[in-house]
Each structure stands twice: as structure tokens, then as C-alpha cells.
From TrEMBL:
Signal sequence bounds: none
Record GO biological process: DNA transposition
A Pfam family hit: DEDD_Tnp_IS110
Residue ranges of domain Transposase IS110-like N-terminal in the record: 19-179
Single GO MF annotation: transposase activity
Domain of life: Bacteria
InterPro entries documented for this protein: Transp_IS110-like_N, Transpos_IS110
Protein name: Transposase IS110-like N-terminal domain-containing protein
Length: 244
């Protein structure tokens, strides 16, 4: 047991109400206990809405008042991104909270009843027990410009991944249907190449289109530098294409 875990255990005393929350997309389940594992009140199911969060806070505050607890800590499993709304709400209301490792939840369930199966009521109890044992972490939720920067980085990563997927697909399509295309246009991402690809024609169809029609279409994107010679090269390549 490391010193950090010891510090967290020491923060939980006989006057601390421990609340475990099983997070879901629409409705969460919570159970409350003390440092010995004695449970108080009935489990509550509340929605992922402001009204649901207010119901949840009122529920554990009522238990804390009735049982004489002086402070509360809420533990939750960081399921996807669904936990973030509750975490931000608790922080705004100055409620102490922590997150537990999903692997610890799974292993602890196996120890309790020899079954790792998913059960919201059981999971909420297991999460509370992990918090009791100091097996939780305090997440860092950036605010203001730092939160915006983190979100911007995530969006950039997603866009970069999506771009790579699209580029790979286009390469695959060219290799299959018109492998000679890149002998005429060295870079399919240039304006003129994309303009020709936007016709959505297979090689045998492209070869039947008049030079003037293709040149007019090409000039809509590339005003200079490309002429009839490039069009004729493309049609010649299309007529000899081995694309499927």
C-alpha cells in the first residue's frame, strides 16, 4: 500500500459518508455507506439531468443529516464520457469526488460473489467500497481556456485520424479502378486532380467524354498551367487502363 493510498484512507473517517455511483448514459445508480461498509438508506436512481443531480444531492444530504455525517465523498467509475457532467456539477457545488479504476471494479465484483457480470446496484456498492479503501483518484478537470485547448486537441486528433482514413480510401479506389491516374496527376490531392475525380467517372466512361468538356470542367478549378495536352494524356491513360 503506497503513501498516497494511505493519505486517502486517512481522509475517510467515521464522520464521512461514502457514496458510490454507477454511471450510465441516461440514469445513474447510487448507494451510500460509512467507512465500515454499513449501508444507509435505499439505493437511488437519478437521471443525467440537473433535476436528477439535485435529487441525488438531496438524497445523500438527507442521509448525512439523519446519521450525523459531517462530510461526503462521491466515488464513480469513469464510464466513457458520461461521468463528466456529474463530475462538473459536483465540483461547481464544492462536493468532494473521485474516480475508481474500472479494472478494480471488475476484480472486486469477482471477489464479492465470484461473478464479474454487470449490475448497476452491485457496481455502486463496489465503487463505494473501493473509495473506502482509498483506491480512487482525484481527476483533474481543466477550466476556461485550458478546457478549450484540451477539447481542441481532441478534435484535431479526430480530424487527423479521419483525414488519414479518407486518404487511404482514395488511394485504394485509385489503385483498384484507375491506377494510371497518378501517372498523369502526380498528386491526387491537388486542385486539378480533385476536380477531375469529382466527375465520378470510371476510366472507360472518362475516355468517351470530349476533350472540350473535360477541359472546361478542369478550368473551373485550375485556371492556368493545365491545357488540352493534360486532358489528352488522361484520356489516353483511361483508354488503356487495367482498372477493374
Amino acid at each position: 500500500m503506497n503513501s498516497t493510498q494511505n493519505e486517502r484512507i486517512n481522509q475517510i473517517t467515521s464522520s464521512t459518508l461514502i457514496v458510490g455511483v454507477d454511471i450510465a448514459k441516461f440514469n445513474h445508480v447510487a448507494r451510500a455507506q460509512d467507512y465500515r461498509g454499513v449501508e444507509f438508506g435505499k439505493p437511488i436512481t437519478f437521471g443525467n439531468t440537473r433535476e436528477g443531480f439535485e435529487l441525488f444531492v438531496g438524497w445523500y444530504q438527507k442521509i448525512a443529516t439523519a446519521q450525523g455525517f459531517q462530510d461526503v465523498i462521491v466515488g464513480m467509475e469513469p464510464t466513457g464520457h458520461y461521468w463528466l457532467n456529474l463530475a462538473h456539477y459536483l465540483r461547481e457545488n464544492h462536493v468532494k469526488y473521485g474516480i475508481v479504476n474500472p479494472l478494480h471494479v471488475k476484480k472486486s465484483k469477482e471477489l464479492d460473489d465470484n461473478s464479474p457480470s454487470k449490475n448497476d446496484m452491485k457496481d455502486a456498492k463496489v465503487i463505494a467500497q473501493l473509495v473506502k479503501d482509498g483506491r480512487y483518484a482525484i481527476p483533474h478537470l481543466p477550466q476556461g481556456i485550458y478546457a478549450e485547448l484540451r477539447e481542441a486537441m481532441k478534435i484535431r486528433d479526430h480530424l487527423t485520424t479521419d483525414l488519414c482514413v479518407v486518404q487511404a480510401r482514395v488511394h485504394n479506389w485509385l489503385d483498384r479502378y484507375f491506377p494510371e491516374f497518378l501517372t498523369v496527376f502526380k498528386d491526387w490531392e491537388c486542385k486539378s486532380a480533385i476536380q477531375m475525380l469529382s466527375l465520378y467517372l470510371l476510366p472507360h466512361e472518362l475516355a468517351c467524354v470530349s476533350d472540350e468538356t473535360l477541359l472546361k470542367h478542369l478550368r473551373e478549378a485550375a485556371k492556368r498551367g493545365l491545357g488540352l495536352g493534360r486532358i489528352q494524356m488522361l484520356k489516353a491513360a483511361a483508354s488503356r487502363s487495367v482498372g477493374i
